[in-house]
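Practice problem: predict the structure.
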Amino acid sequence: MEIPVFTIDAFTNLPFKGNPAAVCPLMHEQSDELYQKIAVEMNLSETAFITRINPSDDFTKENVNPTVVFETKSGDLFVTKQGEGYVMDFPLNPPTQEDPNQFRDIIKVAVGDHPVQDVYLSSNTKKLLVRLADSCDRSVLTSLKVDTVALQSSERMGRVRGIIITMKGSPDCQPGYDFYSRYFAPWAGIPEDPVTAYQCSSRGGELELEVRDDGRINISGQTVTVLQGTITL
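Answer:
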């Protein structure tokens, strides 16, 4: 059996930047065990497997419809081609503000003694957002050395599956960014997401976000295909 595989760098227009992900278009669904083995072999934080719902669909032909709908375990995902990039339609999952003392240990491991302005938690996704004080310079965020083993050990109650460390950006500068962030999810086997904010990781990445009035959010960015091959089984 042969399975096509692509490595795509997302949220960038340059190869070897942004968020690398493996994508495998499939003619038929395979077992979860095989999916896991391929993901381990690709050794990337994300590996996606796409199966046609309609047998007449053709992966090799350009879709004349600018919007493609993916049926996922998290619900339908709408992706629209727009200019040189793509727009993804996601649920917003609004968080609630929390008392930092309730997450004192995990915050200490994540940001040390740096001042924290706000803490939010999304109960749906179990993502904890820690906003550094506006008095912090961007170098505070970029220079953080987070011990992800200690981070995972600091929270074992199941309240948190990922932590976002963020701070106010400089939208008036060129190029201007509204915020910078880094994302860590050792609970899910991801020490740090590669693309969390421009110049906050070695790969960088740029995301355009639009919060909509219907409780959804548009996430936009460009992609670059850096590898195309075949998995032979």
